[in-house]
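haha ok so turns out i had the wrong file open the whole time. this is the CORRECT one, sorry everyone. sequence first:
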Amino acid sequence: MPISQITEVITRLDEIVQQCRSSQSRMGYFAALYKRMTMAVSEGILQHAFEDGDRMNRLDVVFAQRYLDAFDAYNNGSACSNSWKFAFDCCRTNDLIVIQHLLLGINTHINLDLAIASATVGPGDAINGLANDFNRINSVIASLVDDVQESLSRVWLPMRLLGKIANGREKAVLNFSIDKARETSWCNALLLAAMDEAQQGMYIQQMDQVVYTLAQGIRSPGPLAEMLVKTIHATEYDDVSRSIHLIDTALVA
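then structure:
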């Protein structure tokens, strides 16, 4: 169902979180994190933290709609982007740690969806005026990821052996860096904003393939990282709903 306000996004995300808790679906991990991100953006709009609150509301809605459409399509057996399908498929397996699931969602949502949403809200030369707020929304994402990672590390102590996901761009955690994703997403947004619809369609397919390849690196980060993943995995909750609640509230349940 199309949405028009950020408050509707939060309501829909909360419905997904509760649905996933009831069904013990790991798809709820990213949904819970994304709900908190959206609430933080909403609060920022109310506090005039962005240059253009109305534009940020539109950006957040277009941004979220891509995730919601992918979520609904996947669960209805319809087609969605390769990168979202891969992230959702991974939720059916039991061998990934929570952080990997979060990174798979963040990877697709920043590297693919945010670039497309930004070009949609700021077509042509209008994209240039979006730069500061684009960076601010990414700062919100990085801050929330940092908070969640710290909360999880208090419960699952081996996670402290992982570097901070929201760190400097030169260091990647499980083959992913938020700063690098932000830079790539902005570059792609600039390119998309200058294209016509046909060109955008072809370029988005190429972007999707690149993001899918990045996701495979998060899924299988290499022998040394996978040893750490196994150690962390052994300490995580068996109860998926409990882990979703921890991400959703940052409280130990």
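Residues 74 and 85 are 7 Å apart (CA to CA).
again sry for the mixup
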